[in-house]
Fold this protein.
Amino acid sequence: MKLFQPKKRISLKNSKGIILITVLWVTAVLTIIALSFAYTVKLEMKMARYQAERAAAYYLAKAGLERAIAQLEADKRSGSEVDFFGEGWAFNPSAYEDVRLFNGSYTVEVTDEAGKININTASEGLLRALPVIRDADHRSEICDSIADWIDADDNRRLNGAESAYYRSLKSPHKCKNGPMDALEELLLIKGFDMSWLYEASDDGLAADEKTGKKSFQDEGEEARADVRLEEVITVYTDGKINVNTAGFEALSLLLGTANRELAQSIIDYRTGSDRTDGTGDDTPFFSIDELKPVIGEIIYKQFSKFAGVSSNVFKIVSIGRPDNSKVTKKIEAVIDRSGYPSRIIYYRED
């Protein structure tokens, strides 16, 4: 029986192998930590840069908004009694188009809301004739529901909806029973699809490729001109439409389907010889009476109740873009310049 056994010796060669493996593992772990730290720092730098670019884009868009408001207020103070596309608030490349400011630029578009039909004051017949809605299979349901939403009572129309219907929904709410404050309210109304605001609808006219002038199509000719519902309706005006800024669709709806030629006659008169809005030969209507020889006295007597030649409510869309960046900021606002300073009645950021 052996009472003593000597310990096995680890060879120098084996110990060097263990040390090498340990060093490699430590190096690998440290490399992973370093790469992880570098990635985190890079990500944080990107986030910081993105936040800075977002802030820059916001202030650029805000600058464009304030510039447009200043332009509209200056036009108001000038004492002009008409509003048309030939004025500086509408067409002003030096103030609106890709304007340089510090390390970025902004672009602005101003639209006269009085050039549209106020859906809060529209008749049932006018609602049924609106773009997109007129082509809907459930047009009666949409129109009755819009009318029920706006009227002050809880009496449901044949195809409409009042609070009893809206409270039964998965996301219940009341029927407003009052005028809409924003077009987005249409999303809450039975039967209405919000995409319809931006969906193009044929207006029955073809545009000449050279002059841009629209003319009535022969039967079977493919339409090349279209209009979106958002371009035709508003909720911000007193119900009168500015004949100097209204589009063909809005004018023809108010004049009636049988008088669509008269809508084109109004546009032809105000645009001058080049038939283009916003150019030097524009001849705007300075009073409603000037419409008489254009549309005839009989039509004038009815149409003049809904017509005007000026506006105080405008939509401004301003987009800010920092240099060397894909980040943009869009601000959309509706302003009322009837008082001073102008009052923002709608505001949205995208």
